[in-house]
Structure formats: structure tokens, C-alpha cells
Amino acid sequence: MKDSRRFVIQGIFILVGIVYLVRLFYLQVVDDNYKSQADDNAIRRVIVYPHRGQILDRNGKLIVINESVYDISVIPKKAKIDDTLSFCNTMGVTRQYFDSVMTIATRSKYARGRPTVFLKQLSVNEFAHIQDRLINYPGFFYTSRAVRKYPQPTLANALGYIGEISEKRLENQNYYRQGDYIGISGVESYYEEQLRGQRGVRYVMVNVNGVEKGAFKEGTFDTSAVAGENLISSIDLDLQRYADSLMTNKIGSIVAIEPSTGEILTMVSAPSYDPNLLVGRLFGKNFSELQKNPYLPMYNRPIQAVYRPGSIFKLVQSLVALEEGVIDPQSQFACIKVPMKCHSHPSGHNDLHNAIEWSCNPYFYNVYRRIIYAQSSGNNWRDAPIGLMEWNKHVKTFGFGTRLDVDMPNVKRGFIPDTAIYNRSYGKSRWQFSNFYSVSIGEGELNVVPIQMANLAAIMANRGYYYTPHLIKRIGKNGTPLPQYQEKHHTSIKPEHFQTVVDGMEDAVKRGTVWSKARIPDIVMCGKTGTSQNKKGEKDHSVFVAFAPKDNPKIALAVYVENAGFGGFAAAPIASLIVEKYLKGHVDRTLLEKDFKLRNYMPKPKVDPKALKKDSTGSKPKPALPGFPKPDTSKQTKPIIVSNRTKSPTEKN
């Protein structure tokens, strides 16, 4: 009995001992929490942020570079501050700021042991002021990273900007962490994976005050950061800056493309802003002011603004009609009101060449009518939907009504009407050509984006094909563009149909709807003017597409200037100056250049009356216009005097 009792007691002691041994083994070998906590006291894991890839223009000039900044972080559990007021003065912050950050940093018992960013993006000079004093404040340490800097204040909308990653984007990914920066828009967003590089890690020994004492085990466990890839853009920086100067005090866009490659030579969104505004500690303040600006400088017009194309769309109508066989180059229509009048044609009859040269509205009314009723059965209600969808298929091969895969996010697709829209508006089998004839001259339900207009100019230059427009020509020093930008896209129009249309474009510039001063004496430029109706009831928009030279074209472009009226007298001269600058390297027509740099087509900003309440001084607040010049109302456009023409600049084509 005694032996059995002894065995029981011994068994209990042995069992307790085993439990303690197992627990000790678990704590020391399996569970690394205590080890990690011990390591945190002596070893600090520091993220090494890579340099983001730089962006250069096609000639190797830097467009986007990196600049070092410093974040000051705090581990509340280790923080020790004897004089809070002195600390705030050293850091250049208010006591209110200090209290708010420390409150967030200590919102839970677990947060107290984790680093929280106290100050973000200190410049080199700002950091130098406090670097030596950090040793007096245990628990505070710094991390170096790089932010963007823009040597030239241009291309803001195309390049985009970087910002702190949102909580939503943190979900379902393994690379980014809270507080990381990421491309938000433009090229910075589209090429984020190539630009960001790969983070590194270094482990450093620190003393009880948080002062670094050297690398842990001589850096055995460190990993190096890998810099992001540099991007060689297709932009010609000199041409870009020149185009910017021509769009001062104007709203609109310019897109110029190299037809043989689809490379974008210049992309202007006007008005714009200095991209340096969205870098550094004033990001939030500047972003808010730009968002409130009535002229919408952050609106990327070349890829997002949707307009009626106006008469430039007559080029497409001509080619579709030739392909469908409903007209030939010699087809003539009387230049009489049917139901729209011709604004400029000097004679009563014309063929296709002359109709393009003078942009004859009645001619293209009849052309479009023939396209729609090409499969005539005598029943217009039945034939119109068939003809419309055949026309729709052709037009979409030009890149209209679809989203061009430009290397930027948020590209709009525009709109090409089909049977669905008219069935909703009028009912099935209750509409015909007379319900949408205005589409014949680029109006009505037709909507396009400026990048699509420039692509049309490239198609005309190539006589029937295009490469998707893109901003980046190489990824890395010896790299290539993304595969989709090396694919040739053909329209549904046979190449032989382009010659008559191109000849008409040449004469439109030489002697047709283009203002004589917009002609380049020693360069053959082919173009088409347009005047797009302004839905807001103000002055119409000025449109022009062109390419040059006529043979072996080097540049194709579209210029869109809001509230500027007739295309031949506003958009066309700007386009011709850009063509001359690119092909010759300089501009001989200096008077025209000076004229258009000074022209002001900015409308008065529309401000919500509720926002115009008087402030404490009794004055009304003015709309903020950060980042670009205020509209100069003292420099109004002078009337244009045409020596040998009877047409005024306000006449539509």
C-alpha cells in the first residue's frame, strides 16, 4: 500500500517536471516571442527603401529624379522626453501636433512597442537641423527614403504623382506595408511594378537610448535594396516645353505622335500645375487647393476630356464611304442647305477632294446618308439600323468608341452611336437617318477623346494603320516597350482609298479652311480643321488634326482649344508652330509664335455662389489658381485680319 502511494507521489512530481520541461522547451525553442522581444531591445530591423526608377526624355534629358528625405519615427514604449516644449521647438512642431501623434501612437498596449511615423519627409536641410539632437531623445529614430523631384515643371498629368498607399490597396497583396508610397496616377501608376524596385533590410545594434552601435553580425543577415528600372520616355522635352508655352492661358490639349512607332512626342493638358507641388510635407495642402481650382488643372484632358470631334470626323466619313462603295472620288453633291448650310465653299458643286479642302457640310450630309442607306430596301426604318451598325464597325477600327490602351490609367473611350442608343430614345423601328444626321459632321451623339484625335492623324499619315500611342519607349537602358506597343493595328479601309483624302487635307492647309498664317512655307503639312459645338453655350471649341511632311511623315498631332472658335484660326496655327519646331528645330515665324503665346482664351471661372460669402474683412474670396498663371484679362485676342479672304474667324467649318 505504502509502495503504491509512493509511486503515485513520484509520478505526480515526474509529471509536473515533464510539464515544466515541455513549457521551457516551447518558450526557448518553439515560441520566438520572447526572443523577438529581446532582439528588439538590442537589434533594430531597418527597412532600406530603394531608389525609384528615374524617367528620361527620348534624348536622355532627366524629367523625373529622386531626392532624399527623412522620416522621424517613435517607439512610444522606449520614448523618453524630459522637456516636451524644448522637444517641440527642436522638431519644429506644436504641442498640439505632438499630443495628437503620441495619442495615435499609444492607442493600444500593442502599439506602444511598434514604431509610428512622427514626422514625414524632412528635407536634407531640415533633417540636418535635428540629426545631432536625436541622441537626446530615446525611442526616436530616422529612416531615409527618396521622393520625386521634377527639374522641369511640365508633364504633371501625364507623369502622375506618388502618395501613401491606401488601406484598400493594402488588401490582398504581400509587398507593400502601411506607410509605403506608391504611384497613384499617370505613368507613375501604370509602371509602378517596374519603377518601385525591391526593398532591402538591415539589422543594427542599438543601445538602451536607441542609438545605433553598428551592424548586427557585420551585416550577415542584411539584404540590399534594388533600385527600380529607369524609364526612357518618348517625350521630346524641348518640344513639350514649347507646346506648354503655346497653351498658356488656354484650356485644352495637344497630343503629338510619331506615326511610324506610336510614340507620343508631346502631351499637353492645359491648364496644368507644377508637379513639385505634390511632393513633400505640403502635399495635402497643395492637393486640396488644386482640387478646388475652377479650371481643373489635375484633369488629364488628353485622355479624359470627351468632346464632339466636329469636322475633323469628315475624314472618317470619307474613308468609310469609299470603302463601302457608296461614293468615289469624283462623286459630287450640290452645296445647298440640306438641312445644314456650307460655311465656306466658294462654288456650288464639288467632289470629295474639294469637300475636304473646304469642309463642306452638305456634301458630308449626303455622304453619311448614303452610308446609312447603303442596303436600301425602300424601308428607311428597317435600313437605318443596318447601315448604322455597318458604319459603327468601320469607325471602331480607327480606335474610336473603344479605350486606347495608352500607358496611363483612366483612359476614356468616348462614344460612337449604335442602334441601342436610338432604340432607347425613340423606340425600336421608330427612327431613321433624319434623327441623327448631325453625326455626319462630327456632332450629335458622337464623342471622342483628344488622344483618339491624334491617333486619327497618325492613321492618316500611315495611310490606314497605327501603333497604340504610348509614352514609354524603353524600360531600362537596353530594354524595349511593352509588347502591346509593338503591334500594328489596321483599319478596315483599304490603303488606296487614303490618297484622295490626304490630297484634300494638303489643300485644306494650302488654300482651304486653314488661316494663311498657319501655313509653313517650306513644309508640306496635311490637316483638317474642326469647330466643335460647345454644349455649355459658350464659344465653340477649336480643333485641328494634321501630319507632316506629306510623304514619310515624322509627326502627327491633334490640337484642341476650348472656347477659341473656328479651328483654322486658333488650333491650326498652334499645330503648325509645333510641327515647324519639331521638324526644323526652330521657328522662323516669330511674330505668329509671340501672338499665340499671348492669346488668352480662358473663360471666367464659374464659382458656386454659396462659396462667395464675404469673409471677416468684407471681401469676397477669389478662386485659387496654384501652379499656373492666372488668366490675364488685360490681354484680349485681337481681331484677325485676313487680306485675301472674306471669311471671318468666327465662321464654322
Automatic annotation (TrEMBL):
Enzyme class: hydrolase
Residue ranges, compositional bias (Basic and acidic residues): 605-617
Record SUPFAM superfamilies: beta-lactamase/transpeptidase-like, Penicillin binding protein dimerisation domain
Compartments, as annotated in UniProt: Cell membrane; Membrane
Pfam family, one: Transpeptidase
GO MF, one example: serine-type D-Ala-D-Ala carboxypeptidase activity
Region (Disordered): 603-653
Documented EC number(s): 3.4.16.4
UniProt keyword annotation of Transmembrane present: yes
Ranges for domain Penicillin-binding protein transpeptidase: 252-579
TM ranges: 7-26
Alphabetical list of InterPro entries matching this protein: Beta-lactam/transpept (IPR050515), Beta-lactam/transpept-like (IPR012338), PBP_dimer (IPR005311), PBP_dimer_sf (IPR036138), PCN-bd_Tpept (IPR001460), Penicillin-binding_protein_2 (IPR017790)
Mode of membrane association: Single-pass membrane protein
Entry coiled-coil feature ranges: none
Segments forming domain Penicillin-binding protein dimerisation: 49-211
UniProt keywords, alphabetically: Carboxypeptidase, Cell inner membrane, Cell membrane, Cell shape, Cell wall biogenesis/degradation, Hydrolase, Membrane, Peptidoglycan synthesis, Protease, Transmembrane, Transmembrane helix
Superkingdom per UniProt: Bacteria
PANTHER family membership: PEPTIDOGLYCAN D,D-TRANSPEPTIDASE, PEPTIDOGLYCAN D,D-TRANSPEPTIDASE MRDA
Protein's name in the database: Penicillin-binding protein 2
Name of encoding gene: mrdA
